[in-house]
Amino acid sequence: MLADMSKVRIIVPKRLVDRLIEELHAAKAMHIVEDTISGPGQPLAASEEISDALVKLRAIAAQLRIPLTPTTQYNDLKLILKELSVLIPLVQKNTDTIKQSDAKLKELSQFIEKERMLHSLSLKKQDLYNYESISCYIGTVDNVEACHADIEHITRKFKLTHCVYNKRSHIALFAEKNADVKSVLANHGFSPLLFDDLPDIDLQAAYADSKHKKEAAEKRLAQIAPKYKNLLPIYENTLSDALEKAEIPLQFRETSAASIVYGFIPALSVSQITEKLQKAFRGRIYIESIKTGHHEKVPVELTNIPPVRNFKFFLDLYSLPKYKEIDPSWFLFLTFPLLFGFMLGDWGYGITTLLIFWLLKKKMPQMKSFFNILIFSSWATVFFGLIFGEFFGIEFYHPLISRNPEFSLMPLMIVAIIIGILHVNAGLIAGFINEFKGHGLKAAIFRKGGWMLLEVGIALLAASYTHVISLAPIVGYLVLALAITFLYKGEGATSLVEIPGIFGNILSYVRLMAIGLSSVGLALVVNDLAEGFFHSDLAIVGIIILVLGHAINITLGCLGSFLHSLRLHYVELFTKFYHGGGIPFKPFGMKNEI
Q1: 224-265, pLDDT tens digit by residue?
Q2: What CA–CA distance (Å, rounded) separates 366 from 274?
Q3: Three-class SS state of 528
Q4: ∠ CA(364), CA(367), CA(371), 5° rounding?
Q5: How confident is residue 593, by pLDDT bands cut at 50, 70 and 90?
């Protein structure tokens, strides 16, 4: 369910705006909205300094590999800014040294590779240049012997040495300048290597020096990191809060003498917050509740009990309800696990998944809500497994409803369709309530009542033609005509086109039977395959088939049941009443709470 919200206006003298910000931040109860009429106010003087420090702090935290884990601890802002003014340049200096050393080491590595390659050719850099009548060519070719033979056809005045370096044939060719050796080299895929950038220094010594500088900088950072491992998250939390306070005046309205704040407070907290502010400011503040505009976006806060609260996970994936719209969390809580359990429907699978999801929740507490949903669904799987009498695909007793393909499947289909009728009409009733609250009784009757009346008309026609009841078909046709009239008045001609859709929505629930049958069918196949090996000397193979087969079936069953159950809510149910598009209630000062 949604908490009732009150829109509040607060007026305070400009000289007390800092105090108001502190009080509202500490209260953590007011969702402040921007005043779009008069334009933004001015941030506090320190906002730019705090923002710059926060950005740099997050950067050095990444450089020091310190995770900024959430915390509720704080420290003195001025002391933090002072300490960061020393720490940030120190970390950046060492980080820059590491980056520069890495670039230098990469460059020197390339030079050393060139020097080693020359050494493999028994050459040095000074052997390559400053010749008047000789040209020097160094590079790779496809075939050294063929290249050597072709050069001999052009000139006898040359010297060619070669080596294999990095699995490629390298040559060094010295030939008279007027000899046309370039064309020969080109024919043999010659790729030249240049050495004019090779510095006249001791490359190994330069490499060792750069490596030493890098290691020294890394050591200094390694000494800094442990000291600030626990402090940086506290600093980040303090700066984040300080920046939030410094920038919130951008959402205020300002006059020459006062600041005006607009926002939303849960109705149950308005009197308490008002009393607290009046006491803190000794009457030098004006607070009033004002009427919310018809098209104004009011933030929503879901106030459900803990088990239902888990299902907000699905609303976060879809959309939050608008203010005053029915919260679908209860629908999800009541029916999602039931639809999931109906499809998987094996109490052996249910116990297995219950244990798996419980262990995963312990391992991944950040996904607690998601795994709680799956745990509820596992209990529903156990429940329906007992109804179907299934344990890893085996029927241990005569079930209330059999899902064995050898028996009649009609009862299972009928149950699935009945579930669809109940589920879809629950959505229509919720839609009726939404329309009544938003647009009045007449709109509710025409827009949602028309669909329910349409179903009644179809049911009466079916009952009269099948002689279930002794009723003239004309009654069903009259009800049907009245329903179409309602729909046309409520939603226009488009509703007439959508009439087959509601029956398609109901028939969509036949998937409850289909997914369940696919799961039990695969379980039976696995059991039959394994049974054949148990009557031979290969019992271990039968055990492997059972374990792997049922593991795969459980995985596929959970995935299919989850996705199809979610689809039946998002598509078949939500479209009957739910619009979404709500904005979450985010009280000023709440973001850092854990």
Answers
A1: 999 999 999 999 999 999 999 999 988 888 888 888 999 999
A2: 36
A3: helix
A4: 95
A5: very low
Residues ≥6 apart with Cβ < 8 Å to 40:
34, 250, 251, 252
305-323 burial: b if 16+ Cβ within 10 Å, else e: eeebebbbbbbeebebbbb
Give the whole-angstrom CA distance, residue 298 versus residue 291. Answer: 11
DSSP 8-class letter at 445: I
Cα gap 462→464, rounded to integer Å: 6
pLDDT tens readout for residues 475-493:
888 988 888 888 888 888 7
Helices (H), 248-364: 270-281, 306-309, 312-317, 329-344, 347-363
Question: Rounded to an integer, what is the distance from CA 87 to the centroid of its chain?
Answer: 34
3-state secondary structure of 442: helix
Q: In the predicted model, what is the mean pLDDT of residues 582-593? A: 82
Per-residue model confidence as pLDDT tens digits over 372-400:
999 999 999 999 999 998 999 888 777 77
Position 268: which residue type?
A: L
> Looking at the domain 8-40+252-301, which fold is it?
Alpha-Beta Plaits (3.30.70)
Domain extents for the chain? Answer: 8-40+252-301, 42-110+205-250, 129-194
DSSP β-bridge partners for residue 6? 265
129-194 — its CATH code? Answer: 3.30.70.2750
CA dihedral defined by 122, 124, 129, 134, rounded to 10 degrees?
-10
